[in-house]
Amino acid sequence: MACALMTAIFFALSSGELSGTFNSARADLQGEIRRTLDWIVNDIRQTVSWEVANNSPSASYIKFRQVQGWNTATDTFLLSTEYITYTYDSGASTITRRLLDAGGNTLQSWTFNNIIQAPFGTLNSSGLTVPLNSGDLLTSRKIIVSISGQSQIRGRIIDYALTEKVKIRNE
Fold first, then answer.
1. Which of 7, 59, 73, 107 is exposed most, by the fewest CB atoms within 10 A?
2. Residues 6+ apart with CB under 8 A from 97
3. pLDDT per residue over 49-86, tens digit each?
């Protein structure tokens, strides 16, 4: 009888520990996905669509300079001399954010982990989401950022995804 009671207690404690570990891993993944989305969205909101379009955007890559002000003499945006890039690496399951100087040298770099698909899209003329490309971006002036993540804990797979449609500032 004591052996059965000890087995039941051990099983209950082991199940509770696994549940706590799983919940902790899920919360970590959700935080990583939210943090990645927030960084990208905040950066994109500070640029103009033609700046992204002029730098060969794709579903896995964007590059742009942020708006720093307005030149009242020429009625044009003043853009930073530094570039921001986001690059998705499917092999490493990462997105890397780089701050580059005007010569293309990396000033700072951040890596976001557990990303399982290319994050960048836009809307085509029919309003459908398509991989990011210059033509559709210049028409829609919207970037769809979809961050999908995945991690594994003790053989269990955890998935989490967030999507946000970012309207780029009026030009």
1. 73
2. 39, 40, 43, 84, 85, 86, 109, 110, 111, 112
3. 999 999 999 999 999 999 999 999 999 999 999 999 99
What predicted TM-score, i.e. pTM, was given to this entire model?
Answer: 0.87
Instruction: Report yes or no on 51 lying in a domain.
Output: yes
The reply to whether 2 falls in a domain is no
The answer to whether 89 and 113 have CB atoms below 8 angstroms apart is: no
Structure confidence by residue, pLDDT tens digits, 88-136: 999 999 999 999 999 999 999 999 999 999 999 999 999 999 999 999 9
| Structural domain count of the chain | 1
Residues in contact with 62: Cβ distance below 8 Å, sequence separation at least 6, in sequence order: 44, 52, 55, 85, 86, 120, 132, 143
- Laid out side by side, the sheet with 83-89 consists of 61-64, 83-89, 94-100, 106-113
Residue 11 lies in a domain: no
28 within domain boundaries: yes
Q: Where are the alpha helices (DSSP H) in 45-74?
A: 49-53
Which pLDDT score is estimated for 168? 87
The DSSP bridge partners found for residue 152 are 157
